[in-house]
Fold:
Amino acid sequence: MSDWKPRTRAVHAGTRRSQYNEVSEAIFLTQGFVYDSAEQAEARFIQAGEDEFIYARYGNPTVRMFEDRIAALEGAEDAFATASGMAAVNGALMSMLQAGDHLVSSRALFGSCLYILEEVLTRFGVEVTFVDGTDLDQWRAAIRPDTKVVFFETVSNPTLEVVDIKAVSDLAHEVGATIVVDNVFATPVFSRALELGADVVIYSATKHIDGQGRALGGVILGTREFIRKTVEPYMKHTGGSLSPFTAWMLLKGLETIDLRVRAQADSAVALARALEGHAALDRVIYPHLASHPQADTARGQMEAGGTVLSIDLKAGQEAAFKVLNALEIFVISNNLGDAKSIVTHPATTTHQRLPEDQKQHLGITPGLIRVSVGLEDTDDLIADLTHALSMI
Structure:
């Protein structure tokens, strides 16, 4: 398998077949497993073998297939699948932090990530320092000798700021800190996070991995020691594990992720180029546009610019709502990475809870619309959004 290309790994890695030698992965819908003897049960609870299972909250053959496959695709030693992307963020951070620890994070984060850092971790005595993720001087000033964890979204939601993974990782590793990144916008297809220095990578599998709006899921990737000795004990006792049926859906999603995400990214960059300079827009934000402030960094650490762009309307919220309501192909929802193209208004939905001054600081303006590009015909998407913009 070490010689396989990523698309091959996404189809075949981690496969476990029963005695029936089924083609499609089997779904093991069971909460527990039977032992041949009391002695065998005792031995398994002391130390389960590589292909031995105890309880679905601890592990399951279908879930393990998904963990092995996504780890092979990402280039990680191991993975732990979780019930949602936020369960992955919470599990990765809570499993390794305790009262008195120090964490440094970029300020530009998804609203629920901000809640975990600002409300949950601080409640348990973790000191959190926020920085502008694109400013290396701020990272340098904030990272201390006692910093335990550095956390950031490699591409931020929804303003698509790109953090220099290698540069920040180098700063963090100088003091022995662990780099934890939320890599959703970069996708497992275009990611180079581990290669560039990240220690732990998190995905919301709800997004591109499923890619068809069917289920919630998440995954934490890292070294085998970190996953099995730090993450697994916390997750299996707190109950945030993935269901076998959802794991099966995510396995099916991985079979087509390379084809889907590349097609979506091709449409996204075409849409961004078509809209750049539109009279109704203050800006078009897409990591691989030359106008993006971190375009060089994005090209250096992402093979393509991803499936999401953001547009900022000059006329503010009223105009943004008019555009959203005029769209015919794009649907209004708060997910991304779906086969269907999706638009959302972050200031009133995903980032609504942020104080106005923070929204302005992060660039989440009243006119900002996040656009997740799906698998529809590119020309149809350009026509739909251009027509909607003409309404204002």
The domain at 258-390 is CATH 3.90.1150.10 (Aspartate Aminotransferase, domain 1). The first helix runs from residue 6 to 12.
